[in-house]
Design goal:
Length: 333
């Protein structure tokens, strides 16, 4: 059995995926035509060619502009359905999907437009593919905390469909402490908490996410190695890190995949997982992230199984289902 088949056949969860970052250039093009939105590109190939980033911000500028083609409920349905269809092809059996409400509400597109589209696709994927999905509502950290509060309020009719609240967008200059109060409120409402930290920002932002936001998981977190006390804490508490290798390469967090520290973190006893972040912008969905790690770091079958098992361990699934899925990882061929 080749390693590619193992990667494909093992059941996996994806825990760090921005649905807006799964918009393919083809769908962007189609929706731009549908809504007569003018794009600064002359073809699908030109869109693809523009995806060269020097840092997180240079990516976010294109990512927010690209999301501008998403206008009606059907657009959000198709976006979600295309991602979940890809999950079925990759044997991703459970997903925890981030969405950025403010990217849409800022354009006058409300929860009553995107949520029904997302939920219809999630329901269809559950029925047709047997894939379970949770939604993670993420606040944009470059905006003020007051707007995160407004977003939490606007989401009220959909609370039962949202599992967790997260924090994303431009990290540097926008530490977790800026959002301490709104996350306290979200926690009190019963949401799980996640936050991007230690992607471009320092290890101190990871500490803040833990101590001030009371996170259940850290998104990225790869800069934790800069602080040995933090490493020890993450290990002791088994706070999961949702690591995104191709994202780190594309956003120049690392210069070469051979430099990626995911195996070092795993070997140090941290609960690390593999994820695709924004797959259509970063050149690969989940299995391609595993493939890239295999090519650059020569990860073997037991490491792939350990990472896949971690994806369930780190998920927000009920304990019983986690256990059953981890067992499936161990026996899958
Ligand atoms: N990698 C990332 N970091 C921060 N915010 C994001 N939004 C979408 N992808 C992101
Ligand atoms: Zn992310």
């Amino acid at each position: 059995m080749s390693l590619s088949s193992i990667i494909k056949n093992i059941p996996k969860a994806e825990l760090h995926l921005h649905i807006e970052g799964s918009l393919t250039p083809e769908l962007m093009w189609r929706l731009a035509e549908k809504h007569s939105v003018s794009l600064p590109y002359a073809s699908v190939e030109e869109i693809e060619a523009a995806y060269n980033f020097k840092d997180l911000q240079s990516f976010l500028d294109l990512y927010y502009a690209g999301a501008g083609v998403l206008r009606d409920e059907d657009d959000f349905f198709i976006l979600m359905w295309e991602y979940l269809t890809r999950c079925a092809e990759e044997n991703i059996v459970h997903t925890e999907i981030m969405f950025d409400p403010q990217t849409h509400t800022e354009r006058g597109i409300g929860f009553d437009v995107f949520m029904p589209g997302f939920l219809r696709a999630i329901q269809k994927a559950e029925t047709e593919y047997g894939i379970s999905s949770y939604l993670i509502m993420s606040f944009l950290r470059h905006l003020p905390e007051s707007e995160a509060y407004q977003t939490l309020e606007a989401a009220k009719p959909y609370y039962q469909h949202i599992k967790a609240v997260g924090l994303d967008s431009s990290e540097l200059g926008h530490p977790p402490s800026k959002f301490e109060r709104v996350f306290k409120k979200a926690k009190s409402l019963g949401f799980k908490i996640v936050a991007h930290a230690g992607e471009e920002g320092p290890a101190s932002y990871i500490w803040e996410a833990i101590e001030l936001l009371d996170v259940d998981r850290i998104d990225h977190g790869v800069r934790c190695q800069e602080d040995q006390a933090l490493m020890a804490y993450l290990k002791e508490k088994q706070i999961p890190l949702t690591v995104c290798p191709l994202s780190n390469l594309k956003l120049c967090v690392i210069d070469d995949m051979k430099e990626h520290n995911i195996v070092q973190l795993l070997d140090a006893g941290l609960l690390v997982t593999v994820n695709s972040d924004d797959p259509t912008y970063f050149g690969g969905f989940l299995n391609e992230n595993f493939e890239a790690l295999h090519t650059a770091l020569n990860i073997d079958e037991s490491t792939i199984r350990a990472l896949a098992a971690n994806s369930f361990r780190a998920s927000f699934l009920p304990a019983e289902r986690k256990k059953a899925l981890i067992e499936q990882v161990e026996i899958a061929i």
